[in-house]
Amino acid sequence: MSDLIKLSAAELASRLAAREVSSVEATQAHLDRIAAVDGDVHAFLHVSEHALETAAAIDARRAAGEPLGALAGVPIAIKDVLATQDMPSTSGSKILEGWVPPYDATVVARLRGADLVPLGKTNMDEFAMGSSTEHSAYGPSHNPWDLSRTPGGSGGGSSAAVSAFEAPLAIGSDTGGSIRQPAAVTGSVGVKPTYGGVSRYGAIALASSLDQVGPVSRSVLDAALLHDVIGGHDPLDSTSLGNAWPSMADAARRGAAGDGLKGLKVAVVKELSGEGGGFQAGVKQRFDETVAALTAAGAEVVEVAAPSFEYAVAAYYLILPAEASSNLARMDSVRFGLRVKPEAGPVTVEHVMSATRDAGFGAEVKRRIILGTYALSAGYYDAYYGSAQKVRTLIQQDFATAFAQADVVISPAAPTTAFELGSLVNDPLAMYLNDVTTIPANLAGIPGMSIPMGLAPEDGLPTGLQILAPAHQDARLYEVGAAIETLLEDAWGHSLLSQAPLLTEVTR
Amino acid sequence: MSEISTDLVRHLAGLARIDLSEAELESLTGELAKIVDSIAKVSEVATPDVVATSHPIPLQNVFRDDEVRPSLTVEQALSGAPEREGDRFKVAAILDEEQ
Prior knowledge:
CATH class of the domain at 74-266 and 405-499 in chain A: Alpha Beta
Strand order of the largest sheet of chain B: 1-2
Shape of chain B: flat
Distance between the termini of chain A: 12 Å
Strand order of the largest sheet of chain A: 1-3-2-4-6-5-10-11-9-7-8
Helix content of chain B: 25-40%
CATH architecture of the domain at 74-266 and 405-499 in chain A: Alpha-Beta Complex
Oligomer: heterodimer
């Protein structure tokens, strides 16, 4: 195992810039690690055949003195939800098996433009529907802390890749927590930017009013460096915000260096504090300890009420299926993807489409499409989809009240540590409740981050702290996130992931 | 209790263009009934005075200049087609004999 894989993206980037190490060496070290452990972890659905070639080209340009990006030469894993024109893009579904898109997602184009090295595509629940990767058509990913447990979902491939040191950075997408919950249960860092802060062009759509692409990493600074590469306005996404964003990396460095916690106003949402139960004891304990540590560091912690949060999961499971049922209508067997002929009856385009969608979609996708079709059907639209949209307004109002009293809102990022694979997969409602802490931010469009909050005493598995900021205040999230990360790591004397078990490496 | 029946699920599957087996229709009926019961609570707080939010960060009049820009070539657009004929996507008959 090479020491190069243990470096943060920031450290690796500075060693690359100083030419102490080449991108080919760094990329080879990560490819070796993938070959050695991914049989057990299954973070990747596809490993790029072009990574070394890309790295060599970057090395050559660096040798020629060309100006390169801050993360030039650093390898990165990409969630399979993003279109990549040199790798299959399946969104974890059989219906898109082997599909190589004729274009790159904007985020992917920006990674290439900033000279990062795509390593491969990471596993995910099919079309990002799930909290465990068990709904992937290609089998689940495994948590590097305990291979019998989930690395979270839907972006469990990305969280497993960074926490198993198969990649220093990854891209995720977060519709109801798919970046933050996997980060929480693997001891890594994940950020859902403000809705519209990062382009969705080329991200295979799940629920268009909720989806947001964001960074996955092992430190707040690394996430910030990646955010700076992928963020900003994209004319190809009509929901992309035109804001002039400040440097997230500068914000993270400021937070790590200063005493920014003194006088910081922090709100704890009563409904997400574990007061009423529903949270694993060790998660609640680490959260309460973190609140105490923040108070000791000079932060003012206030409790706020968010009475509408009780309705968030219900609203989410109306809005998401409604939008997904519409978005996934494009899986029609005509222009790309699978085509299956019906076994009986007339072979018309409609019957081919129905047979294809039956064969190509997994159980959870069918369940949500049918639910969404129901919620949108005549006579029910107002009662379901219309009511859910009103709940969104109420949740935004609750956040507005909280942010009138505080700079950031905090909560546990997930109600439990990583659960055993197989334990919830047959109980959709129980699986949905995993997202109770993360869903409100998607409904409101605000940015959220999960950082490691310590190991739960009862099972020794990671817990995550969620930090939320008002819309457009992503930089505040990085500043506060880096400050809390520094506070906690100074108290522990190490990073959380340095405590992860060593995985057995198989010989190639 | 919700009014989800197997016949309703069969109708919805038709609308959604998914051929579901009888076994799938059965299990989905039970699951959907439970899910719908648990999410119907949204109507408790969705009173007439609350405005609906369709988009978390509203933008208005998102236009671009009407100018020619590069787009996919015919070959790129057809690169993922399950079946093609010449420069076109090839599909089965649109109408069956009853239509």
